[in-house]
Write the structure tokens for this entry.
Amino acid sequence: MTPKAVIFDLDGTLVDSLEDLADSMNSILSGFGYPTHQKDAYRYFVGRGIKNLVKSALPASASDEEIIMKCYSAMMDSYAKNCINKTAPYNGVIKLLDSLKERGVKMAVFSNKAHPFTEQIVNDMFPGYFGQVEGLQIDELRKPNPSVALRIAEVFGVVPQETIYIGDTDTDMFTAVNAGMIPVGALWGFRKADELKQAGAQYMISYPEELLQLFFV
């Protein structure tokens, strides 16, 4: 069965956003007098929304909710101004999207990144490709809750079993499994193959166009 739709995660799947996230969060940490982190540390801070990124980046001594919210507010302001400074599509992503579009495959983005940032990045870097773009708007619907993914499939008029969900973290694979979709792990992203496999990835691909070879030949 050839899939009829593909839902993409954003960070670590379509775009490498790690440096902008790290720069913004480190500027907040420094401003509040807290230690900063190396860029690679942010690979494990991202994927569960900006507020959880802030909680992960703060030291254990700064677990007070008031501190978290002050840093979260500052991070939202900073990242709004800097979310496309260094962020860019991964090599091969545009070619993949072009090929899927030519084949009439329906495409969407579903991210735990705050919705305004998700829209901003997609509109700036991928205009005209996606029929649905969904960032985090209601915390209860944050991945791995499958509700938004299932709603996208419903809007597209496709069943979950005909829908690929591709991402680079265990959260993405859990989302795909929970939705009854085809879980595909993106090995060029922020996490490792073992994490994706343990979370339920049925397929793992090393470069974007490999998705075509697996499902759309």
The longest strand covers residues 106-114.
